[in-house]
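Chapter summary example: a protein plus pyridoxal-5'-phosphate.
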Amino acid sequence: MRLAERIKRLTPSGTIVMAEMARSLAKSGRRVLHLEIGEPDFATPNHITEAACKAIKEGFTHYTSSKGLIELREAIAEDLERRQGVEVDPESEVIVTPGAKHAIYCACLATLNPEDEVLVLSPTWPTHFTCIRAAGASAVEVPCGENYSLDEERLKESITKKTRMILFSSPNNPTGGVLSLDEVKALTDLAADHDLLVLSDEIYDCITYDGVEAKSAASLSGSRERVILINGFSKRYAMTGWRLGYAVADREIVDAINRIQQTTTTCPASFVQKAGVAALKGPQECVEEMVKEYDKRRRFIVERLNKTLGLSCQNPKGAFYAFPKYSAKMPSIELCKRLLREEGVCTTPGRVFGRYGEGHLRISYATSLDILSEAAEKIERFFTRLGEELKG
Ligand SMILES: Cc1ncc(COP(=O)(O)O)c(C=O)c1O
């Protein structure tokens, strides 16, 4: 046995099974429509790319402070104050990381002890579970109501002596649900009553529809010192490959995350941080345009899914995922495999997002209307056939 015990906690997720199957189908010449990919299909806006190129050409290619460039941390603080009314000290309460994922991983490592329990609003992004497990703690799933509404009673009942943190993401991946300000307040109040930390993953907070606003958990008075706010550049500015994110927290937690970062990555790439400054300080119309386009796709796909036999889909209020429920009695992994094998449409099984995701499939609409339209037809055909098969 050459591997450490801790690596057993990092189990590969069901998304890998789907990706491998899609790859082998494509290799055999089949056309595969990818609705499983959780990243913007837009190019990173030009002024951001140019800022990185300029930094490289000017020789800005060395280590930075392990917390990130102060110029970037100041830009993050200004952005949070302007959009969310969150006041932070860029010197001591912000740390820039190579992606929001790394910020979540470090935050879990910095604050969780083995045996601790984390209440996770479910369904949720699978990496939330693995980061908790990586720290030796365990995730306790707390189901949300329809379209990711807070079940306050259920959350309260789930608190035990071992509970140390509540973790959630709003807008939510996979449901597209957004908690209201009252719900976020109820959650942070509960955390305060029981002296718990709150990890609030706000990576999709700029992608909302129909005038819905995703309010930051850190914006509530009195909750700042217990909230670890996570955000990043991947979704808002179509910068997934650049690897740039951040955590905002109490200075003690930021210092602890900094020690992990000093031990692991040192800092995010210097010129990528310059691109981050350009993103936050530059024009924001590019974000509005992308959101407008996602909105068109959202309206299209949700309508088509709701017209499909055996499917019902809530209207997502944020992010770029639809999470239809299906009526067939079949595990979501089996259903998604069949949809891929029979129609060449790759989606993500709901079970990947926790036990309360079962009975759903996740469809990413971060892809063109043409692809969505072709996929919608195939999905309709598949569910009609499945309905007849199950009847007969
Ligand atoms: C809820 C959530 N948080 C964080 C991330 C990852 O962000 P990053 O690319 O900055 O690591 C994702 C990516 O899918 C996500 O869905």
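Key point: The first helix runs from residue 14 to 27.
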